[in-house]
């Protein structure tokens, strides 16, 4: 079955972009909001030399210690930075993916080259918006963070390190996210081919495919995520004689120096636990909003068609009613003439 045969998969040229952007923005905010406390744990567990009070054995242990010693509010520090970035970033992300995929695949399923190229292109736009938000978010998430608000964090970074600080990890982020998103999209599309061949709206298949796609992509790209965290947070104890850690090579060297090969997989469990439900939420919410927006537009089109049909029928009926009184009037005139003839006295001869 081709995607063009399914109106849910292939929307109108004009409405399609708007639909994908609205659905994508909703999916991005929902995904990051629900899993944000786990994201906080992941950031802290990736620290190379954590504070003794923030040396966690597991995700559950981390959440328990943060809530008990710092309060539940600290599990959502930096949330506003994420919310401001996730909406527009995911709007462009999904809209770009759907557009490029449709152009390269010609509306046909099973073209994984198209999925890879579409995912890579979408990542360029997504990370350009999300990278500055990630820098602020992760510095707010660190144990003992000196920043009292998202705005203060943004302002202080800009003043002390300049605009470059917000894109210090951009190349590493792309190096990580292009394979991550490509693997995620390919895995998701393969699972959809297996679980949902007709490509109808099916929440179960969207959740299962999304969760598996997130787990596979997160595991493969884990070392790059640790590098990205180090570049974003600029962990003081890891900088030695360097003013700042710049570039992926420097990040790799620093991580290996402090933790060896195992350091590249710090927080792997937290990352997989975070990515599985968050990717499942992202895809299921995206598909739900895409379906609902399309359904509403389809219903509006049907209502307009029915409304115009009713108006035409009503106009036709009115025209018919305007003609029908002529017939009774003619019959009445003939009856009056007959009565007059009958009442006329006959002339006898």
Automatic annotation (TrEMBL):
One of its GO terms (molecular function) is ferrous iron transmembrane transporter activity. One of its GO terms (biological process) is iron import into the mitochondrion. It is a multi-pass membrane protein. GO terms for cellular component: mitochondrial inner membrane. The keyword Cell membrane does not apply. It is found in: Mitochondrion inner membrane. InterPro entries: MCP_dom_sf, MCP_transmembrane. Keywords: Ion transport, Iron, Iron transport, Membrane, Mitochondrion, Mitochondrion inner membrane, Transmembrane, Transmembrane helix, Transport. Solcar repeats lie at residues 15-103, 110-194, 201-292. It comes from the Eukaryota. Belongs to the mitochondrial carrier (TC 2.A.29) family. This is Mitoferrin-1. It comes from Lymnaea stagnalis (Great pond snail). The lineage of its organism: Eukaryota, Metazoa, Spiralia, Lophotrochozoa, Mollusca.
């Amino acid at each position: 079955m081709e995607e063009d045969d399914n109106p849910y998969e292939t929307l109108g040229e004009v409405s399609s972009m708007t639909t994908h952007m609205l659905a994508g923005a909703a999916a991005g905010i929902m995904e990051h909001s629900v899993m944000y406390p786990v994201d906080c744990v992941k950031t802290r567990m990736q620290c190379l030399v954590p504070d003794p009070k923030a040396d966690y054995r597991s995700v559950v242990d981390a959440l328990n210690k943060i809530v008990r010693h710092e309060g539940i509010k600290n599990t959502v520090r930096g949330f506003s930075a994420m919310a401001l970035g996730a909406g527009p970033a995911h709007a462009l992300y999904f809209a770009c993916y759907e557009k490029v995929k449709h152009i390269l695949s010609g509306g046909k399923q099973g073209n994984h080259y198209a999925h890879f190229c579409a995912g890579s292109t979408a990542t360029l736009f997504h990370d350009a918006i999300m990278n500055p938000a990630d820098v602020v978010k992760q510095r707010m998430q660190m144990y003992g963070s000196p920043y009292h608000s998202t705005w203060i964090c943004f302002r202080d970074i800009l003043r002390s390190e300049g605009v470059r600080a917000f894109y210090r990890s951009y190349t590493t982020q792309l190096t990580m996210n292009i394979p991550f998103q490509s693997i995620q999209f390919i895995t998701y599309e393969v699972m959809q081919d297996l679980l949902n061949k007709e490509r109808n709206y099916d929440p179960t298949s969207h959740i299962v495919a999304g969760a598996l796609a997130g787990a596979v992509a997160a595991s493969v790209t884990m070392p790059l995520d640790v590098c990205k965290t180090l570049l974003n947070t600029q962990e003081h104890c890891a900088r030695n004689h360097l003013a700042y850690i710049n570039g992926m090579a420097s990040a790799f060297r620093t991580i290996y120096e402090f933790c060896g090969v195992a350091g590249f997989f710090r927080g792997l469990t937290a990352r997989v636990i975070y990515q599985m439900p968050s990717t499942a939420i992202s895809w299921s919410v995206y598909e739900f909003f895409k379906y609902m927006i399309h359904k509403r537009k389809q219903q509006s089109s049907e209502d307009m068609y029915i409304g115009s049909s009713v108006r035409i029928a009503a106009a036709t009926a009115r025209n018919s009613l305007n003609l029908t009184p002529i017939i009774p009037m003619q019959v009445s005139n003939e009856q009056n003439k007959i009565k007059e003839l009958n009442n006329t006295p006959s002339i006898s001869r």
